[in-house]
Write a structure and sequence with these properties.
heterodimer; A: 2 strands; elongated; B: Arc Repressor Mutant, subunit A; three-stranded antiparallel sheet
Chain lengths: ~325, ~130
């Protein structure tokens, strides 16, 4: 192999990794520069193969050199990435919800018995849909990135004009929302009164010439849960009163909230798996569906609440003290 | 376990950080050298001679970037038929920017010298007060 051959190979390799637009120009210049260097190394004599190899080695890997000639390349650049992440999150959540609804319906309509026959294919379909949408979105964003080029690189006026005073205030995580608590107490009290003393109010009103007739729609099966529900609502009112009195969240009230959540999950499950709730089958389905969603959300909420209570603090008090003693 | 993941060695950290330091200065040096037209290899040599050794793989792409930004102008010169050379020279824009950058550099050097001598000064103050 001749010295020229080595240089030609090197240049060809660099060229492979350069954009077509200025490939020829850059490789031509590179070639002239490499021969300049080699000539200098040889010091007037004929350059040897080893000398050439040494020079190329010092020059650097062809891929690295080619990369240096180009600005950083992204599939999805840092400007577009935040939007991409939001879109991906929203789409994936929508898909998850769309798959969960028929799942709940199937389970409610007695799908437990032959779960092995349909669950694997459903999960497979779910995974496939997720992947496919992920891929399409990524391709779409990559195309946008390609088309927009560097045109968004300049600072926009928005970047210049941003106002620090417009930043949203940081919420104290332990602050309570009084109005929300009061509304909650009122609603629980109303529920206790209506379900215990006037359950017949919850019905269909039939207006006729003689008198307005209300047909009760709650089934006796459902009404049998009312004592349990009443106990829960009373506990909830007490809990909210404690919270109002304390004026802020404390570990004890966090645990109480978690406990109440578990009780409501239990009641929800009992009602869902018990008999029909109303005398109208279509309404039954809607309510059961709502309870099903509530059950799933409730489980996740409880896990999240528990995590928030038991997670270790980021700053431990010991290091706090050591910093303080250093400052003192 | 988090802290143990692939920590770079001290040597490679020093290498990387001093390269970062030189990178900014290099642009200024290149602009300054190109007040006279030069081709890539001759520029590299003159930088070498002044003690600013730089890898070719970094220098030559930098010339292209500066040209794309309008700070340099270039043209092919065919003095030797076998080896045409691309000569670079500061453009009018480049000259203005160079003047600005020079001022910036002086300011930076003065500031950095003061910052870097800082810890000793504050140590002295500490001794005086305690």
């Amino acid at each position: 192999m001749e010295t020229n051959e080595l240089i030609e190979r090197y240049i060809a390799k660099v060229g492979e990794n350069l954009p077509r637009k200025n490939r020829e120009d850059i490789t031509l210049e590179l070639k002239s520069l490499l021969y300049d260097d080699l000539e200098e190394r040889a010091g007037g004599e004929a350059p040897t193969k080893e000398m050439t190899a040494d020079m190329l080695h010092d020059f650097g890997k062809p891929e690295t050199i080619a990369a240096n000639y180009q600005s950083e390349r992204y599939l999805i650049g840092p400007q577009l990435f935040p939007v991409y992440r939001v879109v991906i999150t929203v789409v994936l959540i929508v898909i998850a919800v769309v798959f969960t609804i028929p799942l709940i319906i199937t389970l409610l309509s007695g799908g437990f018995s032959n779960i092995a026959s349909w669950l694997p294919s459903t999960l497979f379909g779910f995974g496939q849909t997720l992947l496919l949408n992920f891929a399409w979105l990524t391709i779409a964003f990559a195309i946008i990135e390609k088309v927009k080029g560097d045109s968004w690189a300049e600072e926009t006026d928005e970047d210049e004009d941003w106002d620090p005073y417009a930043l949203a205030p940081v919420e104290n995580p332990n602050r309570i929302k009084r109005s929300g608590l009061i509304v909650g107490i009122v609603l629980s009290a109303c529920a206790i009164i209506i379900f215990n003393f006037f359950p017949h109010w919850l019905g269909m009103v039939i207006i006729s010439n003689e008198a307005n007739v209300i047909i009760p729609i709650l089934t006796p099966e459902f009404l049998s849960y009312v004592p349990m529900l009443t106990v829960y609502w009373i506990l909830e009112i007490l809990f909210k009163l404690v919270l109002l009195r304390q004026g802020e969240w404390r570990p004890t009230t966090r645990w109480m909230e978690f406990g109440l959540g578990l009780i409501s999950l239990y009641i929800n499950y009992q009602i869902l798996t018990g008999g029909p709730i109303t005398t109208m089958s279509w309404l039954n389905l809607i309510i059961q569906f709502g309870l099903g969603i509530g059950l799933i959300v409730g489980v996740f909420e409880s896990i999240h609440r528990l995590y928030k209570i038991i997670r270790p603090p980021i700053i431990v008090s010991e290091s706090d003290n050591s910093v303080r003693s250093k400052l003192a | 376990m988090r802290g143990m993941a692939n920590k770079p060695s001290k040597e490679s950290l020093i290498d990387n950080m001093s390269m970062e330091l030189r990178r900014g200065a290099l642009t200024l040096a290149v602009l300054s050298c190109l007040q006279e037209p030069q081709y890539g290899y001759s520029l590299k040599q003159s930088l070498d001679e002044q003690g600013l050794g730089i890898n070719e793989g970094t220098l030559y792409p930098l010339l292209r970037r500066l040209e794309k930004q309008g700070l340099l102008e270039s043209k092919w010169e065919v003095i030797d038929e076998k080896r045409p050379r691309r000569y670079y020279q500061l453009s009018a824009t480049g000259a203005t920017i160079l003047a600005n950058l020079k001022n910036e550099w002086d300011l930076l050097v003065a500031t950095m010298n003061s910052v870097l001598s800082g810890p000793e000064k504050s140590e002295e103050k500490w001794k005086q007060t305690s």
